[in-house]
Amino acid sequence: MHVGSSMESEPVETRPPSRFASPNDHAECRRLHRKFGTTYYFATRLFGRRTRERVNALYGFVRVPDEWVDNPVGGDIERRNRLEAYRSELIRALDGVCPTQPVLRAFCDVMHEVGMPLDEPLRFLDAMAQDLSISRYETYEDLRDYMRGSASAVGLMMCSVLEAGNNPAMLEAAVALGEAMQLTNFIRDVSEDYNRGRIYLPAEDMARFGVTEADLEPTPRFRELIRFEIERARNLYSQADVGIPLLPPRARKAVRLARILYSRILDRVEANGYDVFSARARTSKLEKLSVLIVEILR
């Protein structure tokens, strides 16, 4: 079987009549997803065409403001203004006002199609705004509050995109998976985030292992800190696993594939001796393909 073919058992669908988005808007979402979200994009191979398009739109919606925050052009005031305008366009779209941003046009069409509430998209945008004013987190609970918007909100939006229903156990697992993936990012990207002026490792954890900001290098103490955070992330992945069987059957393989591949970033960090400074931990194309084949044959 060709590995690029869809394994989602759903009827062939045509895109519903668009309220706002053009094919070019959806193409822009797909471009952003393919460029920046390589692991997630790879996993969408196991969705049907229409579901892939919806997932691309969700990714486009979250990627654009994330880029404004992480790789800014202009100062904080300009970034805040951009985020506020983006938020306002999202809200006005619900009243039928066409957004100016291509990704918003695509995403708002998806929100309309699946009946997605506004609360989680707004919670995500609140987290993006928080990045402009908060760069350190004292406790893990403080960090969790941030991740509830920056990551777990995306997991819950994904449940809406997949039309997965409202099973409380499934939604709780989606929150855990978002948190696990975000924590994986924070572990992998310590150096990159520090260069942006941010530290997402809780200060209480750093103090527990005797690590200061001046010690952000692969010392024995830093390695112990990262080993601790990896164990925390793996526990979250385990909590998330109970939710995958609760998803619609057509969605399970793709979500499981994304979960497996993303968690393997932690394996790469371990294999690199917990050195997250010299090279970026990532899964290889061969590893992605091998896991994909296993999921196809499950």
Automatic annotation (TrEMBL):
Pathway: Carotenoid biosynthesis. One of its GO terms (molecular function) is squalene synthase [NAD(P)H] activity. Keywords: Transferase. Residues 1-25 are annotated as: Disordered. It comes from the Bacteria. It holds the Pfam family SQS_PSY. PROSITE patterns: SQUALEN_PHYTOEN_SYN_1 (PS01044), SQUALEN_PHYTOEN_SYN_2 (PS01045). This is Phytoene synthase.
